[in-house]
């Protein structure tokens, strides 16, 4: 018969079942592998009180996204969280099982530390002016006073009027130490340079920072220290120079931003993740990981101003940078509020 060489219906059924079983087993194995991969990733949450575009927070966000792209972490975040809502959001992330919670606790120290006490198995890494809190509350800060000093040297050498303006958010240690280092660097090159200092009372108000910068330009400043966004816009409109802080904005202001002190959060985040992964996370001050020797900060490439800065000035800056890196020169950390010296 023409059908005698075909397998029986029962044989077909058995083979189909076997194939389905193998396929199902494959799916199960793949699913298990995927779950194992996800389990290997550290769950990280970040709570920001400002937009992720803001200079300071953008560097943390960048470092965490880099870890996410490497497949090391699962990363979620909340931005523009009000001080009043901060504790609730942090607590919610802790309840959701995030292993590491990152953020800035400057204005909400008590709230952040309170949550950390309630979740001793969760690692907390917070921007803070205060000390670590045992057993699980570590702190970090943007200790980028070294490249700030170098940018100050450049500003002091590039200013024709000898008048430099500085616009900051708030006069807190994190801002003060960078401004003080910048001013010291400028004075090394030009001891007679004078400064106008202003704080706008906000971490993110570009229009207000811009107006403050305009006022300084009207008083004769020809180089502006842009601790806040908005300052470089004023410098660009008036044909003056600006020095960047934390991020490099020269690509957006190629004829305005001479140099920038960059903050790289990657070394800080990498250390924290390694500690969490090893089960060794403890209360620690991560400030050192922002220093140049750890590659936590650097002087941005001079780019469009490479040929515009006098060779003698560049040589002095390079010599000072080498001295910082080999430890023969230490930038003084001055957390006191800087004052205007211009008359």
Describe this entry's structure for a reader.
This protein has 343 residues and is of the alpha/beta class. It contains 10 helices and 11 strands. The chain has helices at 9-40, 55-69, 83-95, 109-118, 145-158, 173-189, 206-218, 231-238, 266-277, 311-326; strands at 42-47, 73-78, 100-104, 123-127, 137-140, 163-168, 194-199, 223-226, 241-246, 257-263, 297-299. It has a 6-stranded mixed beta sheet, sandwiched between helices. The longest helix is centred in the first third of the chain and has 32 residues, at 9-40. It is globular.
Spans of at least 5 consecutive residues whose pLDDT stays below 50 are 1-37
Helix content: 40-55%
Q: Major beta sheet, specifics?
A: 6 strands, mixed
Which structural category do the helix and sheet elements fall into? alpha/beta
Provide the residue-averaged pLDDT.
Answer: 89
- Figure out the total of helices: 10
Q: What overall geometry do the principal axes of the alpha carbons give? A: globular
Strands in their spatial order, largest beta sheet: 7-6-8-9-10-11
What is the helix/strand order?
A: HEHEHEHEEHEHEHEHEEHEH
The rounded distance between the terminal residues' Cα atoms is 113 Å
Give a count of the beta strands, DSSP E runs of length 2 or more.
Answer: 11
What value does the Rg take, in angstroms?
27 Å
Strand content: 15-25%
Which terms would index this structure?
17% strand, 343 residues, five-stranded parallel β-sheet
């Amino acid at each position: 018969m023409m059908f005698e060489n075909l397998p029986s219906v029962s044989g077909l059924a058995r083979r189909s079942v076997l194939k389905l079983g193998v396929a199902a087993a494959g799916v199960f194995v793949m699913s298990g592998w995927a779950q194992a991969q996800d389990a290997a990733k550290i769950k990280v949450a970040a709570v920001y009180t400002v937009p992720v575009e803001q200079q300071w927070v953008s560097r943390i966000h960048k470092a965490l996204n880099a870890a996410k792209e490497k497949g090391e972490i699962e990363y979620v975040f909340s931005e523009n969280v009000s001080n009043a809502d901060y504790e609730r959001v942090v607590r919610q992330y802790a309840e959701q099982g995030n292993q590491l919670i990152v953020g800035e606790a400057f204005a909400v120290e008590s709230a952040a530390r309170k949550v950390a006490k309630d979740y001793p198995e969760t690692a907390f890494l917070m921007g803070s002016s205060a000390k670590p809190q045992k057993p699980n509350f570590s702190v970090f800060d943007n200790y980028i006073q070294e490249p700030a000093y170098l940018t100050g040297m450049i500003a002091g050498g590039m200013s024709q009027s000898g008048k430099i303006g500085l616009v900051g958010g708030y006069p807190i240690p994190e801002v003060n130490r960078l401004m003080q280092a910048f001013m010291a660097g400028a004075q090394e090159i030009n001891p007679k340079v004078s400064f106008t200092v202003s704080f706008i009372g906000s971490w993110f108000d570009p229009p207000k920072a811009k107006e403050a910068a305009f006022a300084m330009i009207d008083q004769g400043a020809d180089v502006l220290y842009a601790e806040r966004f908005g300052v470089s816009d004023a410098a660009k409109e008036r044909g003056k120079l600006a020095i960047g802080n934390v991020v490099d904005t020269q690509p957006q202001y190629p004829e305005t931003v001479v140099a920038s002190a960059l903050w790289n959060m990657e070394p800080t985040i990498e250390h924290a993740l390694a500690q969490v992964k090893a089960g060794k996370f403890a209360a620690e001050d991560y400030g050192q990981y922002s220093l140049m020797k750890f590659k936590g900060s650097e002087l941005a490439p001079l780019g469009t101003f490479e040929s515009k800065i006098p060779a003698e000035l560049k040589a002095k800056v390079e010599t000072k940078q080498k001295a910082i890196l080999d430890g023969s020169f230490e930038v003084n950390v001055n957390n006191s509020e800087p004052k205007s010296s211009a008359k």
